[in-house]
Specification:
The chain is mainly alpha-helical. Helix content is 78%, strand content 0%.
Length: 144
């Protein structure tokens, strides 16, 4: 990835982090009282994955670890879309909420190169993503 692409990716990550953090504050009145320190800690976690992933991509552009870390931060921040009182946007946030955990599992299995080298690694990651999908599907169907 070129340096210009990395700068654009970093700016997009910064915008995503700012928007996902502000969504909580803009729409908090519709959901009732908000635990401010908890929300800030959660958003800082997603932002830290975005920032550290961008630094890792900048330092080692051939490694996929930085991109996976940024994907974790992105999925973490997209989960904040559940704060928006629009049905379509809420559904996008609900469908992707928890995907960060599957991507984090992918990151752990593929560390340190970012590549799944063996068939067993690919199987483990496929099970992780399948489990995340099944979990989200069952929680959606049983939500009342």
């Amino acid at each position: 990835m070129s340096r210009r692409g990395l700068v654009l990716l970093g700016l997009a990550a910064l915008v995503l982090f700012a928007v996902s953090t502000s969504l909580v504050w803009v729409n908090a009145n519709e959901w009732g009282p908000v635990d401010v320190p908890l929300i800030l800690a959660k958003q800082a976690t997603g932002g830290s994955f975005l920032a550290v992933g961008l630094v890792a991509v900048w330092q080692r552009p051939r490694s996929r670890i930085g991109l996976l870390m940024m994907a974790v931060g992105f999925a973490w921040c997209v989960g904040s879309l559940t704060w928006v009182p629009n049905a379509v946007i809420f559904s996008i946030g609900w469908a992707t909420d928890g995907l960060w955990a599957a991507i984090l599992g992918h990151l752990y299995v593929s560390f340190p190169t970012g590549r799944l080298l063996t068939r067993r690694d690919r199987l483990v990651v496929a099970v992780i993503y399948g489990w995340a999908l099944a979990l989200r599907l069952t929680s959606t169907l049983t939500l009342h």
